Amino acid sequence: KSCPARLPLSDLADQLKHRLDLPISRPGVPAGGRPASLRVEVQFQYSKVVPIQKRIFELMDEQRKLHRDVTNLQIGKELEFEDDWDLPDKRDLADAETKADGDDGDDGKDS
Q1: What is the Cα–Cα distance from 70 to 29, expressed in whole angstroms?
Q2: Distance between CA atoms of 66 and 80, rounded to whole angstroms?
Q3: Distances (CA, A) of 1 to 27, 55, 56, 87, 91
Q4: 16 CB contacts (<8 Å, ≥6 apart)?
Q5: What is the mean pLDDT of residues 85-103?
Q6: How far is Cα 56 from Cα 64, in angstroms, rounded to an integer?
Q7: pLDDT tens sequence across 5-53
Q8: Which residue among 4, 75, 82, 105 is least packed, with the fewest CB closer than 10 Å?
Q9: What DSSP designation does 110 have?
């Protein structure tokens, strides 16, 4: 037998799995009869593309910022998006350069 059951899609808008008991309309059941229900596990997934598309746009934006900062470095300008990058502290860079200048691999002996 088939009986109708209704579930608004707005109840599934979060796109997660839900376990529900849906009331079923049974024709020919006298008033006051025992109500029937259907236990279901449902998930409405309106798009698999939307989350992927969102991630692509985020990566493209990051890539655009990276290209812009690389170009700025090449032409001697300051970084525009310095806060977006996980760069070492400038103080650490200065210390590393000092060590590199002091240690040129020459131990003072002539061959």
Answers
A1: 74
A2: 9
A3: 11, 46, 47, 67, 77
A4: 43
A5: 67
A6: 12
A7: 788 888 887 778 889 888 887 777 667 767 778 888 988 877 778 778 8
A8: 105
A9: -
Block residue for tokens 């860079």: 93
Please name the residue that has the structure tokens 């300051």: 78
The whole-angstrom separation of Cα 77 and Cα 87 is 17
Token representation of residue 109: 């002996």
CA–CA distance, 23 with 5 (Å, rounded to integer): 6
- 44-85 confidence digits (pLDDT tens): 877 778 778 888 999 999 999 999 999 998 999 988 888 877
Q: Which of 59, 85, 91, 58 is nearest to 72 (CA)?
A: 85
- For residue 24, give both structure tokens: 């079923």
| Cα–Cα distance measured from residue 80 to residue 78, given in angstroms and rounded to the nearest whole number | 6
φ/ψ (deg, to 5) at 29: -90, 130
Summarize the confidence of residues 76-99 as an average pLDDT: 75
Contacts 24+ apart (CB under 8 A), 18-25: 18/42, 18/43
